[in-house]
Amino acid sequence: MRVARTVDDVRDGVRAARGAGKSIGFVPTMGALHEGHLSLVRRARADCGYVVISVFVNPTQFNDPADLAAYPRDETRDASVARDAGTDLFFAPAPAEIYADGFATEVSVAGLSEPLEGVMRGTGHFRGVATVVAKLFNIVAPDVAYFGQKDAQQALLIRRLARDLDFPVRVEVCPTIREPDGLAMSSRNVRLAPADRPRALALRRGLDAAEAAVAAGERDADRVRRAGRDAMRAHHVDPEYFEVVSADTLRPLKVVKGDVLIAVAARVGSVRLIDNVLLNL
Ligand code: AMP
Fold it and tell me: What is the pTM of this model?
C-alpha cells in the first residue's frame, strides 16, 4: 500500500494504475476506521482494479470546534486496517495540502443542504462536505466513489453534486454496517461513556418502532414520527430530530408513500449520533 501526503503523490499513483488499465475506486473518510468504512473499501476492492482511501478530518465541515478537537484520530491503525482490507493508496494529507493560503472557492448544493443535519449543524456543514468532496474527486479522479447510507443526506448531496458539476464518477451508496445489537457503527461511538452505550440504542429502537408502525399499516407521517420519538424517549433519549421525508428531496411527508427516508439525530451524553432507514412503499 502506498501512503500519499500530497496531491502530486496521489496523481502519480493513480496515473500509474490507469496506465496499467485499472479502474479507480475511491472511499473518502475522516479516519478512525471501523467496519462501516472497511465495508466500502472491500466493495471498492471487489469492483475496481485500484483502491484509494482518503483519511482527512475536514475542518470546514465542523460547526463545533470542540467536536473537531475531540474527533478520534489514529493514523497508524487506520493505515494498517485499510491495507488489510485491500487499499492500494492511502491519502492522508495535512490541512495545508487541501486548503492553501487564500483558499476562496466553495461548492454548495442548494435545497439538500438545509434540512435535517443542515438545521442542526448549519448550512456551512454541507458546504464544507461538498467542497472537500469536489476537491477529492478532482485529485483522485475516480471511476467509482463509495459512500455509506448511514449518512443518507450526505450521500444524496454527493450524487447531486456529481451530476450537477459533471464529475465523471459513479456514486455508489452502500448499506449501513451495525454493531450486533443494532447500533450504527460510527467513529464517534468510541466517545460514548460506558453508561451511555445502552442508551445509544435509542436511535435504532426509534427507527424500529417507526418501521413497525408503517408495517402495521400506518401511513400518517406524523403518527409514524410520534411512534419513533416515543420509543426513543422510553430509552431516555430525546431526538434532535426524528423526521419522515422524501428520500429524493428530503422534504417532509404527510403521507408515508414512495421512497421514504426516516432520519434521526440525537445527543447521547456528549456524543451526537445519527441513523436512518429507507422504506419503499
Ligand atoms: P466518515 O469517516 O464518518 O466521514 O465516513 C466516511 C464514509 O463512511 C461515509 O461515506 C460514511 O457514510 C461511511 N460510513 C460511516 N459509518 C458507516 C457505517 N456504519 N456503515 C456504512 N458506511 C458508513
Answer: 0.98
For residue 37, give the ligand 1 atom closest to its CA.
Answer: 8
Say how many Å lie between the CA of residue 111 and the centre of ligand 1: 22
Quote the Cα angle for 3-139-134, to 5°. Answer: 125
Rounded to the nearest whole angstrom, what is the distance from the C-alpha of residue 265 to the centroid of ligand 1? Answer: 15
Beta bridge partners of 122: none
What is the C-alpha separation between 132 and 7, in angstroms, rounded?
A: 13
For residue 187 and ligand 1, the question of a CB distance below 6 A is answered with yes
Taking phi over 0 as left and psi of -120 to 50 as alpha, with beta for the rest, 41 belongs to alpha
Q: pLDDT tens digits, residue range 146-177?
A: 999 999 999 999 999 999 999 999 999 999 99
CA–CA gap between residue 250 and residue 245 (Å, rounded): 5
C-alpha cell at 132: 472537500
Output the CA 250–ligand 1 centroid distance in Å: 19
At 200, phi and psi to the nearest 5?
Answer: -65, -20
Low pLDDT (below 50) residues in the chain: none
**Residue 29 beta carbon below 6 angstroms from any ligand 1 atom:** yes
